[in-house]
Amino acid sequence: MKTKLAIAHPFEGAPKITIPSIIGASAKKPILYRIPVIGQRPMEYSIDKLPEGLSLKDNIISGSIDKDGCYEMVVSVTNSLGKDEKRITLEIADQNVLVTPLMGYTTWNAFASDVTQQDVEAIANRFVELGISEYGYSYINTDSGWQKEYGGSFDAVMPDNKFPNMNAMTDKIHSYGFKAGIYSTPMLTAWGCPKEFESIPGCTQGEPDYRFSDTNGGIGVIRKERNNALQFENWGFDYLKYDWYPTDPVNADLMRQELVKLSRDFGFCVTVSAIKGYPYWSKYCHSYRSNKDSYGYWDNMLHNYGTYFVFMEDICKGHYFDLDMLDIGTCKGKHLANMLTEDELVFSYSMRAFLNSPIQISSTLENVSELELSIYCNEEVIAINQDCAFNTALPILRVNEGKCAYDIFEKQLEDGSYAYAIFNIGEAEAQIEMTAGDSVIRDVWAKEDVSQTGNFTFTSYPHTVRILKSNNKASF
User: Fold this and answer.
1) Average pLDDT over residues 187-209
2) Judging by DSSP bridges, how do beta strands 82-92 and 69-79 pair with one another?
3) What pLDDT shows up at residue 395?
4) Domains of the chain, CATH where assigned
5) Which pTM value belongs to this model?
């Protein structure tokens, strides 16, 4: 392996708070937030200036706030080895969840349509046991495979017997301080049908509406967005992945309008083929996709990486381009090849983390290796993804000369420093020279300083990434 990684130790050392400096929510809607902290247990948590309407129990903030505004608070955590504190701004505004990219979990690559309620609850528990939760991962999302047929008090899509009690599942997820997500589609027939069914329904019924594509039977003229949104709310969900092809603003907005009426905040992701040129995505969707499902092959990953360049100018605070779920770790679905090398696994995570994408683990989390945990759990890499200057990572140099091909991205961070990612997408080594004045240069994946003078030369190997930081703007 060419990439040097710092080994993750979630439960060792003095406390280190990993919250982004800004978190968001809507007024008069439930707030639930687990305070993520690396370090030795036990710990004591306290908050100075906790806004009225909120309470702190152990490491979980809950409650609601009546009025819009910015609320400053100081989070403090102590253990036997020391103390850490961080000033946090809680932004309360309409539909203000996910001001930074979503970090969490989704079931598809791990379990495909065989996913069960037991699987989802076990993942939430594993997030806590492994310490993954202490790095800011906070959403546990159930992808397709839960649906069966219409029914219930809302005349909405009901789960099959693999999900005997949706309310119990979301209660379990919420008990850890996590949020719960679910999957659906406006198409008459959803993707991800379990093998025991001929088809599973989406959020429309009836004859196809001929204004839209006939993919999976088309989109029905009988609209059930309200029914299903009310059912999601009743079950206790906090996030919806809404999936169809081609992805259009009309059907997106019909569902979004129903979600915003609910008593709960809902994160809203549209996928799988958001069309460039619609300002809707970067105004109303917390994330949006227009790429292939991740399959654990280099060429597949490189395709998704390339889609970033099409949408990068549309990315802004609270609205992020989604490079799809991670292709790292073990899975039960035969669809995932898992043929990436160790360096390519780091590349896979890095492109999501550095390029402002949501980060969704999708592994069974069985027999998690040191490598896997260390990729998921590098607080310095994650801090770049969650940085609250909300600057987009932009390419400052693109080289494509025969087998030599690499891209260098720059992102200025809220503390005034600069982060750089060098993605070698070619088949040849490249010599990279970085000059950053008299700044210290830090290797973020290794969590070590590599230069005290502001000058650093290194070899970039094929299919690898290097993430570096400097106090000064660098040249290459």
Assistant:
1) 97
2) antiparallel
3) 98
4) 16-92 (2.60.40.10), 103-385 (3.20.20.70), 394-470 (2.60.40.1180)
5) 0.97
